[in-house]
Structure formats: structure tokens, C-alpha cells
Amino acid sequence: MRVRRSAHSLSPAEWDRIHSVVTELHSQGHFDQFARAHQAVFNNVHGKSAFFPFHRRFVLEFENLGRRIDPQFTIPYWDTTREYRNPASSPVLRSNALGGNGEGPDGCLPNGIQGNWQMSFPSRHCLRRDYSNGDSMNPWIAPEVISSYIQRDNSLDRFREHIEFSIHGATHLGLGGDASTRYAPNDFFFHMHHANIDRLWWQWQNNKDTMLDYNGPGQNGEAQLDDTIPQDRSLSFGDAPVSSAMVLGYNGMCYTYDSAPSPPASYPGTRSGSEDGDSNWAIRGGEPMSPLPMLSGSSILADRGLEISRIRKALGDNSELKDYFPTIAAMNTTRLETILSSDRGAHYKCKSRDGQRKETLPIEYPAPMSEAWVRMHGFDPERVAAVHREACQLIDMLNNSTYASPY
């Protein structure tokens, strides 16, 4: 079982190996192939339930091609909440990693593992980056907002909408250039970003025991598990059904994440329970690879432990805030404190990952999605605006409570 690791944990030597793999994939024409395929199915995999299973399969196909070159190759995930306040400062964007902003009149990427690349799709051009705010980027999405989605969204369609209208769009728009187009897979960032989106979906699936929940708008009416994953002739999935991509560890989904639950010991069954919706899965997910994995969107173990314990203290009698974090609100206090104070949870003590206490800053508002981005995806502008407004309201409540963000 391969394990996808955080991009923040990679050494220079590991970035060099990724550079070798993606360079060979580029020479073989696979970046053009994936960019073409993504553009071809774009309208069928955004704003629809296929968003999650399509991108899970799409990224896996790219990863499998890379493993033909280097059998140890896995796509690292980029947890873009880690530097959400100042995304351009991320070590993932250093010159020996993904590279930074574009330069010159065309915004050509001058450095990183794809530095000075020429792309062929949709026409010949340099690989471009164009940060959303000149040499910097507008703020992305705070971990606490994603944590709230993981805990309170009770349907895949609602979770998909929250993710698409927040962290998904913010990161694409932040980098700009090729990353903000329908042919975004030209930029390897795309696969790292969608590996992270996949990680968040997997955490949500485990948190709600909803590994097989699939609902919302499909290509022809209500989405169904036996729907075919959208595909293009340039990248065929063999007419695989959505059900084949729902559970990690099965049907070729042979990977997991270093900060998320392991695959279940057996394939999930169907729901059991009363007809009023108060139901449970017959088989739960596997043991987590790390403590408290499903309550927070952050991949930083130390800080997400602080996030969970501080949110629990801030809830108090604030019924409105409890609605945003229902899993934390319902957690047995004794069990929570035991986990946080145990040897396994020792790294949750009130210090940051560098061992020093950090200055507490208010959570920052995310930048709204651009009108052009909303139009390109065919999103309902009112729904997009409502999701942004709701995130800002949550941030206001947290900033006005006793909660002190560790991020």
C-alpha cells in the first residue's frame, strides 16, 4: 500500500526524484494528454458529484504512469491551509520544488521542477504562473473552515460544494497562469492540489462513515454509484463506474495518506438503520495512521491537536458555534483530554511545530472567487457568494470567541 506524503516533508533529494519523473512524463507527452483530457470533460466534473471520484481516478492514473518510471514514485499532497495567510511564502513554491511566480511579459515559470518548460496544449506556450496579487497571493482558506466542513456536512453534494467553492478554487486562482485554466494539469501543482482535495474527501468519508454516499447532480439527473466516471478518448478509464473509486484500498485505489485514516479492513457494506436517516455503516473505516485524524483539515499534527482542544473550550454555551463543529461538540471530554495528554498525543502540547510559542493572530478572511472563475465553471454566483459569506461568518464567530488559532 503506497502512502502519499505531505509535500512539506519532502527532502531536496526527493524533489529531485520527482523532477526526474515529471521530466520523463513530459517528454512522453503525458502532460499534454492529461491537460487535453481534463479540458474535454471539464463541464462534467465541476459543479457535479463526479468532481471527487473523477479527480481521484485522474490523479491515480498520472501517479501510475510515474511509477512505470520510478516504482517508488507517489504524488505528494499539498496542504494549502498551512500557509493560507501568505501562500507565496510556502516552501512548496521554492525554486528547488514547484517553483514560484512567473516572470516576463508572458509569466513564464523560470524555476522549479518544471522551470522553463514549453507546453504544447492547447497551443505551444511556456508554462505560466501569475500570482493573484502581483508578487504575492490573496489569502487562501483557513484550516478551521475546512474542519467545519468535514464535521458538519451530512451529504457528499454539500461537502463537494463547500470544497469546490473554497479551497479548490482559491488555490487554482492564487497560482494563476496555466493553473487557472481548463488545462490546469499542465502544471504539476494540479496533481498535488487534487491529492490534497482527495485526502480531505477521504477524511470526510471516514468521519461520517459515508464511504459509499454519492448524491447530487449527475450527468443525467441524480448521481448514482453505477454512473460511469467521466472520461475522454485521450484518457480512458475503461468505462469504470463511480463505485470503483469510492473506497481507498479497493478496486485499484491502492494508496492512503500519512495524515488520514488507513483503508478499511473490509469493503464497506450498505447502510443499516431507520428510515428517518438516523443510520450507520455496517463496517467502519480502518484505524487512523495518526490520532484525531478526521476532525481537522490540517495535516500538521501538533497544530490540529491545539485546534481541536481550543475549539472545544471555545464552544461553551455557544450553540451557534457548536453547529459548525458538531463532532467536537459531541465528543466525550474525558476521551478528548486522554488523547491529547497521552504519549501518542504528546506532540499536541501548547507549542508550535518549531518548539516555540507562536503569536496568536486572528483568522483571515479568504479571498472571494473571481467572476471569471465562476463563469468558467458554470457555477451559480449566488451559491458561491453564500459559501464565501458563510465562511466569513464562521471566522467572525471564532475571532470573537475565546478561540486562539494555532495556525
Main attributes?
two-stranded antiparallel ribbon; mainly alpha
Explained architecture:
This protein is mostly helical and 407 residues long. Strands 1-6 form a two-stranded parallel ribbon. It has twelve helices and eight strands. The radius of gyration is 20 Å and the shape is globular. The protein has helices at residues 12-27, 30-45, 51-69, 143-152, 156-175, 189-207, 301-315, 319-324, 326-330, 333-341, 371-377, 381-399; strands at residues 2-4, 118-119, 125-126, 217-218, 221-222, 255-257, 271-273, 279-281. Keywords: Copper, Metal-binding.
Would you spell out the secondary-structure blueprint of this structure?
Elements: E1 2-4, H1 12-27, H2 30-45, H3 51-69, E2 118-119, E3 125-126, H4 143-152, H5 156-175, H6 189-207, E4 217-218, E5 221-222, E6 255-257, E7 271-273, E8 279-281, H7 301-315, H8 319-324, H9 326-330, H10 333-341, H11 371-377, H12 381-399
Helix pairs in contact: 1-3, 2-3, 3-6, 4-6, 5-6
